[in-house]
Amino acid sequence: MPRRTILYAILALVLVVLLANTLFVVDQREQALVLRFGEPVRVINQPGRTEAGLKAKVPFLENVIKFDKRNLALEAQQEEVIVAAQERLVVDAFVRYRIIDPLQFYRTLRDERTAVDRIERLLSSSLRQILGAAALEDVVATRRAQLTLQIRDDVARRAVSSRFGIEVIDVRIRRADLPPQNQEAVFRRMESQRQQRAAEIRAVGEQQKRELIASADREVTITLSQAQELGETTRGEGDAQRTRIFAQAYGKDPSFAAFYRSMQAYEASLGQGETTMVLSPDSAFFRYFEQGPSGGRR
Fold this sequence. Notes:
Elements: H1 3-20, E1 23-26, E2 30-36, E3 39-44, E4 53-56, E5 62-68, E6 72-75, E7 79-82, E8 88-99, H2 102-108, H3 112-131, H4 136-142, H5 144-161, E9 166-177, H6 180-252, H7 254-270, H8 287-291
Antiparallel strand pairs: 1-4, 2-3, 2-5, 6-8, 7-8, 8-9
Helix pairs in contact: 3-5, 6-7
């Protein structure tokens, strides 16, 4: 083989090695940190900037570390949390985050494995602090969404204060259950509490019912008493007016008044058709049957 050919081959190999250590590609889903002797010198394709593509670096003096630019998921390990009533609760949660400052991320955490470990610690601390002050039923049902938001905000705040160079996007509690050995006892206690609460509600309702019935009875008694009083007053006034009218009529025509009174007596005693009376035929009670309306005149 000619010496010139060998020289060209060596030059080509050197050029390939030189290009391989000079050029690199940054994907649009990635962000790159260029290091010189282990110290960061520049960031490529940081969030908010579009610098993806073919890039160059100083060969052999600089190297490139790439981080994911997309949202990252962290499936945290199950945590056993003691809630306010000293009851144990197994919580399964996950975190969504992204790297927003690769330089700060590298200086603080170095790599994603360390980031996962530190974020899990923050999440565990927030779960124990926030859920530890909440009631069991709040975590399981009634206030789960609000507690999740508190945990997310707390983890995000701690990540910022720790200067991790990341942004916590979301934290979710996937599952919050009692340990199997505690479920039956807790369920029985919750059932007993619900029964006690139901009994209290029924007792209050029964008391309110009795109060309403007593109030209604009192109102009925008062109303009937007032109506009876008004009726007696009206009846007395009517009787007085009737007596006055009768007296006036009796004064104008005493014979007609006597006849009218006798007709009322006949109607009261004989009107039903079942009355038996034994009287003398010439009794004054029957004088109007023999003499007509004039029987009362003298």
